[in-house]
Design a protein that fits this description.
5 helices, globular, single chain, alpha+beta
Length: 192
Amino acid sequence: MQEKKGETASNKNPKKANLLDHHSIKHILDESVTEIVTSKGYPEDVRMSNIRLLIGVIIIVIALFAQFYNKKFPENRNFLIGCIAKYVVFNGVLQLIIYLKEKNAILFTYPPPGSFNATGLVVTSKLPRFSDLYTLIIASADPQSISAKPPVEFTKSVTQWFTKDGVLVEGLFWKDVEGLINEYAKESKKSK
């Protein structure tokens, strides 16, 4: 009995943001969107994050080899040039992945277990600087797939989800996000 009370108390910690910092607001909202989507049965797909981490580790290893190579500078000139070239190439690949594949995505998912849908979701959000309009877009992870659905989105002011103290009113936000997820699910039924 005591454990359940402790769990509910820890789950009820309000999410608070600095209302003057749009990065803080976007972070709280994105974090909540991730919780909502995964609670609706969409498991998170972390393959893209793992690929980025692997490329980052390769970049670090290249830099370490360049730094701690056992010969001094004039003798290791060609080795250093090779390391610098590899460093630039792998950083370029990493930036291309972020720019072309991830864009503004905050979450990639697999399809729900037991679903006949062959693609997961890509959840994207935008909160421009000096604006209170938060845009949330849910699209298919593979737009060329035969089971891909048209993307759905909403744009709303963040002022309706936060109190004056910067506490997120999760019930209102959850209702809006769940409505968007349900709208995306209905799009598939209409298209069939």
